Amino acid sequence: NINDPTRSAKVRVEIANPLVERDGTMQRELLHRIYAEGVAELEFPETMVVSRATVLNAGGDPTVYIDLGEGVYEPRKVKLGILGDEAWQILEGLEEGERIVASGNLLIDAQFQFNQGGTPLEHHREETVEEKKSFPRTTEAQQKVASEFFAVASKMSLALANDDFKAFNEHAAKLHPVLPELSKAFVEDAERKKLVEKIEKSGHMPEAKDLETARKSFVPFTMATVELARSVRGEPAFQSLKIFKCPMANQGVPEAPKNGFWIQTEGSLLNPFFGDAMLTCGSEVKP
Q: What phi and psi, each to the nearest 5 degrees, are found at residue 21?
């Protein structure tokens, strides 16, 4: 490891130090704390490397996404070698010339997990999750449980905006008693029932160990939450509900949806996808 201020590194070398006769006595040829100069010859074969940003390694299961064209991406397990400042050696799993996703792979992976059971992840060119269907007006009971749900979802978003995955875990845990009530409230509402089922599928999240895994879990959940929010926010009971979009969420993946969406029930725009790095990136989606 290079010491930046001194531009130097410590090296341990084993060398022969034979006994020699000096002034009639036997001594070691090299004495303690003497100075020397040396030349280090390093040999390293050609190897495959990828940018560190292309590798998702949550839970010690390194994965990259292969761009198959036409907006289709395939997850590929890889075996990692030496880690550099900006690159990672690939020992197994990739072939030279394959195209891999370098930006937006976190969102692609989250969506793939959400869609598991179908074909490899396929993104369409849609830029919004606008719900065009006509929905019935919500009842007071539905308004109550939906408001409780949106409040929890909003706090989860704000936790990620603050780069606080522990607070995210605390709020995510509060979903467990809310989701069954949400499902029960909309069981007779055929169209919204489908939206709630998406939320239930993505809402039971394992405890995140870091920000990367927290944001990975958040993506499919927030996209499903926004669909439900769109179906109700025209009503007076949900006037404080705001929807925001981030145009940078999938930057560098032209075939993927360009925008990431989230809701907030309070405060001004705070980006959960990037946190402090780009806290105010985004815009409000007006009804």
A: -90, 130
| DSSP letter for each residue of 212-226 | HHHHHHHHHHHHHHH
pLDDT for the residue numbered 19:
93
User: DSSP 3-state helix, strand, coil percentages of the chain (rounded to 5)?
Assistant: 35, 20, 45
CA distance 88 to 54: 9
Number of Cβ within a 10 Å radius of residue 93: 16
Backbone angles phi and psi of 189, in degrees to 5 = -100, 95
Residue 229 exposure: Cα atoms within 13 Å on the Cβ side:
28
Alpha carbon separation from 43 to 40, 49, 197, 248 (Å, rounded): 10, 17, 57, 41
Are 161 and 270 a contacting pair, CB within 8 Å?
yes
Contacts of residues 21-29 at CB distance under 8 Å and 24 or more positions apart, as own/partner, are none
The reported pTM is 0.56
